[in-house]
Every structure is written in C-alpha cells, then in structure tokens.
Known about the structure:
This protein has 516 residues and is an alpha/beta fold. The chain has 22 helices and 17 strands.
Amino acid sequence: MDMIDHINDMEDRLERVKLGGGDKRIDAQHNRGKLTARERINLLIDEDTFVELNPFIEYRGSDFHSSEAPGEGVVTGYGKINGRLVFLFAQDFTVFGGALGEMHALKIAKVMDLAAENGAPIIGLNDSGGARIQEGVLSLDGYGHIFYRNSIYSGVIPQISVILGPCAGGAVYSPAITDFVFMVEKTSQMFITGPKVIESVTGAKINSEDLGGAKVHSSLSGNAHFTGSSEEEVLSEVRRLIEFLPSNFEERARHKEPINKRPVLERVQELMDVVPVDGTKVYDVRKVIKLIIDDEEFMEVQPSFAKNIVVGFGRIEGETVGIVANNPKMMAGGLDINSSDKCSRFIRFCDCFNIPLITFEDVSGFIPGVQQEHGGIIRHGAKILYAYSEATVPKITVILRKAFGGAYVALNSKAIGADLVFAWPNSEIAVMGPEGAATIIFAKEIKESSDPELIRKRKIEEYRQKFANPYVAAANGMVDDVIDPRDTRKSLAQGLEMLRNKKKQLPKKKHGNIPL
C-alpha cells in the first residue's frame, strides 16, 4: 500500500464513524423528531470550527464486535461559539442507544479535562439509554469518572447540559451537578427510575413525559433551567447563554456595546408607572428589569419555577450582570423553600464567575405556614444569607418598595456585605409591615378607642412615617442613597464602574459548610 491507499483507508474508517449506527437508525432518530449528534453539533458550533477528538476510540472487550459501536456512541471535540472556544460531547443515540460504556466515558472525561485545562466552557449534549449493560460495572465506573470531573471543575469553567432525549438512572446526576440544564419539550426526559420500575414497585402508572419531561422539570422539580419547543430553539438558546458568561473563573464576561434602539431616557421614564406606590397592588418585576438593562435584553433562568423570585442575566453599559428580583405578581414576592434554593444557587454561580449581582427588592418576608416550616424553610432560607454573605463580586441592592423582616436582611442588605444599597423614596424598610406592626404596638390603644378602625389607620400611618420610610435606614447607614426611580440605571452603572476592580478575600479555609 502506498500513502494514498493509507489515506483512503483512513477516510473510509472515518466515514464509518461519522455514519454512526447507519442510515436506518439515523432515519429512526429523525422519525422521533430528533437530530443526530453531528447535526446538533453543526447547529451549536460556528460553521467550520468543530474539531473532532478521538474518533477511532473503540470498545476494548471481546463479547461483542467493536464495529457495532463506531466512535463508541459519542462525538467529542472543540469548536467556537460566536468566536469563543468551547468543548463539547454529543451522545449518539444511533449507536447502542447512546449507552455509556468504559471507552464512551473515557472520551467524555478526556474532553472535560481539556476544557478545564484550557479554561473554556464544556457543553454536554445528552441522548442516552443509560449504562451499557454489556459492560457491567465498567460502565458504572465510567459514570463515576464523569461525576468526579463535574464536581471538581464546578466553579472552574461553566458546565452546560442539554438533554435531547432520555437521560435515566445514574446518568441524571451529571446534569444535576452542572450549572445549567436545557431540555426539549416532549422529546427530553430525566428520571432516576423509569415508569415501569415505579409501577412494579409502587403500583402507580405514569408515562415518561409526565414523570420526567421538560414541563415537569422546569416547573415542579426545578431541575431544568431552560426549555424550548425544538432542538433548534434550545441549541440557539445555549449559544445565547454562552454570550453572557466568561470562559472561566479567572475571566470576565465579554463586553457587548448596547444598541439602544429605544432611547434609555424614554425607557427609564416608564419606571414611574410600573411599580404602584400602594404596597398591596401587584406588578411584574420583569418589566422593571427590562426598562433598566441594556436593550431590554433579559435572559431569565428557571422562569417557570418558583415564580415569586426572578433570576437571570442582563447587561448594564455592556457588562454582564446577574439579577435577583422579588416578583410581587406571585405570592406577593415572598420567599419560600423553592425560591430560596433557586436564588441561592444563582448567586453562587455568579460569584464563581465574576458576574456582579444586582438585587431588586420588594419583599414582605418569608412565606408563613406549617408546610413551609416542616419542609425546612429555616434551612433553605439560610442558604440565601449564606450565598450573599460568601459572594465577593460587586453586590448592589435597589429597594423598590417593601423590605421587611428577615427577608430584608437576607436579600443583600449592608449587614451581610452589600457594597451599595439604594432605595426608592416610596420604599418601606422595617421589621414588619406598618399594618401588622401598628396593630401589635398600639393594640391596647386601638381596642379602647371609640373608633378602633379609625385609630388603627392613624397608627398605621404614624408608624409608616416614623419607622417604615427609607430615610430612617439611610440615617443609620443601611441605605447609601434614596434615589429617583428614573435614576436607577444611572446609579447602577456608576456603582458598577466604581466596583469594577473590587477585591475582597474571605478568611482562609478549606471551604464553608452551606446549609444544604
């Protein structure tokens, strides 16, 4: 054989690898409404930038032929998203249903190591029937190597999981450790035990979608952060998310100059009408966020889960910020178990990757109730306190309206490390709302008066004027400034510019012990 023959042989082998499980299985994948691993990569990565790694890795055993598993059922490599380096793996469902074996796991582990060593995000496109049964404990060991890397690289590089088919059993723990999970509606599922096992053990009948579909995980369990109606939509959103993030913990997110199609002065003027002065009236805090950030572009994280708190990414003067905001439209914006978890994990992600935090506060307190108490609201609420206290990135709070009780302290107050706290002039900052406080403090006077309701209203207003306004907090240094709502964006931009080079070191230790 001459060199041309060797090259032709190499190309033939590579074509067999690229064909995966063959035309029939590719057709079956398409008939399920799913793309192949390589089609997904082409949608995700900038054109002509993908470089494949280890295409010729094969199964090492002898109990079934390696030619049945070209590429070991997973495509790995690197490429660019909007010009930025990323690493990825894409499980190939046409090869043994994407089942993970020893060498399949080795390919994933190798590309994860490269991502960490080169300081670039790792993206996993998951579509797998689970562990490869033929390989027994070797497949379980393979999962362990992946879980280990998910854990030790957490906070080193962004890790993104995209669920594009089944993800069952132990396989779900890798996405659970990663920073963000994307799912496709009606074709993605995640669960520890499938419907048949659940029925055999408990007698309960349920299908895969109702057990672990995108809707379930985005609204009930909170395991999914983003969903889309198609693979194309989901992969486009992955590209969008990458634009908000730095490549690793030592970098900052890329600057993106605002377009300002709609004049900033026109937008901030609307703030006067969005937030009702009356604390009993509801509004959607996302309107406030969009009026303040660049180009009204807000990428909300977990929009269908714990809707009483809103978290997500935006930009101010071109710089990425992480936003946490109470939403009075849901549960009066109060904090409960799920919103505490959602908020805390988002705060910690932003702190890992040098993303400044902005908190828009309008909170009446922690949600009362037996279910919340027995469910551990004390422990879950403490996570917010811990996450804000531990975070060393720039932290700015804007009190829009209400800031009551322990929730006021928890939501980035000066006491737990806020760099700047601004309050709108209508805001109320107190141990509890004026209605409840006045009723307790002046209970005897109200009861003994000839017109209890009139006296109660007077005492409420008296309490509000004396104790619940922002100037009391400002006089004691707990609020840095009381600002015109229309100046909110300007104040935030000035504060972020001032804090750009902030450096803060926590006490030396191995790590803290967050109340998980």
